């Protein structure tokens, strides 16, 4: 679970519901002072939300990019049905394409797509459906196939719990399993309250369906390479969901730019946002 370092929207950004052909999505939309040189669509990961990118918004806008972070269907402030089939990977990819179309403006520049963790799998599926709307894809802390085996066990436990318990009960059970350093007592009260609220707002069927996707995702790196789309693989120096060497190998197979953000683990966007924003903006500027 990503923990944003703060919850205040920067002055360059505003929160609103983006209306698309596939329904409304809650977004944070940050804009530079001048016409943007490109637009970045930021897709969050498992149990995440648009707030996971809050610390990237101001530095990306300062670098000249419009940055739009989105809650996917059933995530936090975006509505979603209580049916697992609504969260099939193809459905989520079609949502991203609809969001991209809704964001297009005459002066907003090319679109750069970024997916964090689960969002990396969803955005990969998106460009495999249709790469034409995008200038690049950045895969942030996401690997070539299913998550690592130790994490698979945790996700299976969560799926089982969600099948028999309400969201509040699952939250309390998860908190009881947290290591001492992750306890809410060590978390600022406003952040602890946000994490709790976000969890309760998330549709359980979304978590069950996407959790199963992370358990069964096939290796689609060769397909992605075949699109010819400019790609960037970014991670922290340590990652528990996908081993860092597997992301190194994926970048080689893609012929992608590779960035390792020192001092970060699974969420460089929240843990080392300035360095992450610099790497992203440098890549996007280079591909036009």
Automatic annotation (TrEMBL):
Q: Return the Pfam families for the record.
A: Abhydrolase_6
Q: Name one GO molecular function term.
A: hydrolase activity
Task: Name the UniProt key words of this record, in alphabetical order.
Answer: Hydrolase
Ranges where the AB hydrolase-1 domain occurs: 41-279
Q: Which residues form a coiled coil?
A: none
The domain of life for this entry's organism is Bacteria
- Protein name per Swiss-Prot or TrEMBL: Alpha/beta hydrolase
Q: Which organism is this entry from?
A: Streptomyces kronopolitis
């Amino acid at each position: 679970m990503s923990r944003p370092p703060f919850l205040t929207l920067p002055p360059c950004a505003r929160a609103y519901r983006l209306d698309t052909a596939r329904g409304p999505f809650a977004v944070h939309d940050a804009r530079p002072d001048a016409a943007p040189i490109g637009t970045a669509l930021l897709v969050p990961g498992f149990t995440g939300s648009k707030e996971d990118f809050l610390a990237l918004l101001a530095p990306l806008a300062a670098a000249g990019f419009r940055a739009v972070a989105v809650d996917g269907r059933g995530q936090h402030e975006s509505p979603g049905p209580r049916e697992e089939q609504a969260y099939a990977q193809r459905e989520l990819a079609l949502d991203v394409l609809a969001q991209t179309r809704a964001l297009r403006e005459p002066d907003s520049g090319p679109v750069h797509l970024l997916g964090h963790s689960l969002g990396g799998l969803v955005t990969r599926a998106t460009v495999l459906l249709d790469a034409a709307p995008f200038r690049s894809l950045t895969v942030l802390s996401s690997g070539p196939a299913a998550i690592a085996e130790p994490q698979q066990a945790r996700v299976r436990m969560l799926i089982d719990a969600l099948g028999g318990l309400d969201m509040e009960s699952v939250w309390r059970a998860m908190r009881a399993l947290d290591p001492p350093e992750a306890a809410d007592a060590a978390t600022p009260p406003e952040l602890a309250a946000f994490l709790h609220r976000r969890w309760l707002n998330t549709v359980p069927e979304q978590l069950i369906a996407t959790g199963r996707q992370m358990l069964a995702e096939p290796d689609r790196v060769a397909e992605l390479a075949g699109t010819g789309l400019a790609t960037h693989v970014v991670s922290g120096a340590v990652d528990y969901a996908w081993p860092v060497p597997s992301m190194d190998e994926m970048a080689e197979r893609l012929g992608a730019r590779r960035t390792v953000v020192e001092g970060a683990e699974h969420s460089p966007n929240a843990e080392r946002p300035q360095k992450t924003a610099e790497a992203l903006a440098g890549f996007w500027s280079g591909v036009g």
